[in-house]
Write a structure and sequence with these properties.
The protein has 15 helices and 13 strands. By secondary structure, it is an alpha/beta fold. It folds into two domains: 186 residues, Rossmann fold (3-Layer(aba) Sandwich); 183 residues, 3-Layer(aba) Sandwich (Rossmann fold), CATH 3.40.50. The strands form two sheets. A seven-stranded parallel beta sheet has the order 3-2-1-4-5-6-7, with helices on both faces. Strands 10-9-8-11-12-13 form a six-stranded parallel beta sheet, sandwiched between helices. Helix 8 links the parallel strand 8 and strand 9. Helix 8 crosses helix 13. The protein is globular, with a radius of gyration of 22 Å.
Length: 399
Amino acid sequence: MGRRREGDGAQGTWAIVAGGGTAGHLNPGLAVARALVERGHDPATIHFVGAARGPEGTVVPSAGFSVDLLPGRGLQRRAALANVTAALDLVRALAGGIRIVRRHRPAVVVVLGGYASFACGVGAVLARVPIVLLEQNRLAGAVNRVLRRFASASAVSFEGTDLPRAVVTGNPLRPEIRAVAGHPDRRGARAELGLPDGRSVVAVFSGSLGSRRINEAVLGLVERWRDRADLAIRHVVGRRDFAEVVRQSPLPHSGGLVHQLVEYEDRMDLLLAAADVAVTRSGGSVFELMAAGVPAVLVPLPIASRDHQKANAEAVAALGGAVIVPDDELDADRLERELDALLRDRDRLASMAAAMRASARPDAADEVAAVVERAARTDRSPTPAAAATVDPPEEGGRG
C-alpha cells in the first residue's frame, strides 16, 4: 500500500487514523490499525493522515497502509517569528485535512494528537463523522482538549484523564513489545544484544534525539563504576549528541563495567527483555516498561506540555513500579544513589517488576479497536456544535 497524494480519489475508506509527527503519536495509531485488520477490516479501508515532517511518510506505507501528509508544524507556546510561518502552514493543513475527510467519507476518524489530527478532527466535525480520541498521557494534550467536546469516545491510558466519554484501554503497543509481555527471554535477548549473562543490566534511553541531562549523568556514573564486574549498561544516547558522548565516554577497565553506547535502539523489545531496571523519560514508553515488567528511574521532561510527563511518572510511581527524579536534580550522585538502592535490594526490584506487570494492558490495541468499532457503528455524528468554535491548539509538538 503506497502513499497517496492529497487530492487523489479514494473509495471505501472505513477509518481515517490522523496524527503523528513523532513515533510516540504514530506507533499507537499503527498498533490500532493492525488490530482493526486482525478484527477483519481490509487494510485498504484504513487510511492515515500525518505530518510531512514526521516519520509517517516512510513508516506507514511500509506497514501496509496508505497515507496523506500535511504541511507545517505546531504553534509554539511562546511568541516567535516562526509562528507566522507555522500559522500559515496550519491553515494550509487545516484546509487539506477537511478536503481529505470529505473525499474519503470514513465511518470514523481516530485522532492520535499533533496538528495533522486537528485538521482531520475539524474535517470530521464538519462532515458529521464520529471522532475517537486516543490519549497516551495522564493529562490530555492540546488537540484532544480542543476536540473533546465533539468526541464520540476517548480511549485513554490512565484513570482520571481529563477527556469525556473515556474508556481506560491503556496505550496501544507495537506487536514486538506485546510479545515481550509475560515471558521475556532474558538470556536470549542479552545474547542478541551482546550483553553478558550473569550481570545486572541497566537500560538507558530517552527518545530518538536523546537527553543531554540523562546522558551527562550516565557518563558520570560510568566513570565511577568502571571497575564493577557485576553490571552492564546499554546506553541509547540518541542521534543529536551521539558523537560527543562517544568522545567523552570513559574507557572501560578490563573485566569491569560493560558500557554499550548505541545511537538508536531499533530492537527495543530485546532491550526491555534484557533489562533489570531502566532510566528514561516518562512519555508513552512507560507502557512498554509495564508490559515488560521493567522497574524504572523516571526523569520527566520538564518542558512537556502541561507537565504531562510528571503526571505520567507520578501515576506509575503510585502503582509501585518506579521512582521519580526531577530533571533538575539528576546528576551522577543522584543516579548512583537511586540505582544502587534498587540493585542492592533484589526483593524490592522484584516487587516493582511485579507491580509493572500487574498494571500492564498488553491488549490495549484491541481494546481501542473495539472502541473505534462501537463509535463507527452507533454514532454517525459528533456532538452538535458550531464548527466555527473550534480553535486551533496553541501548544506545539504534541496533541
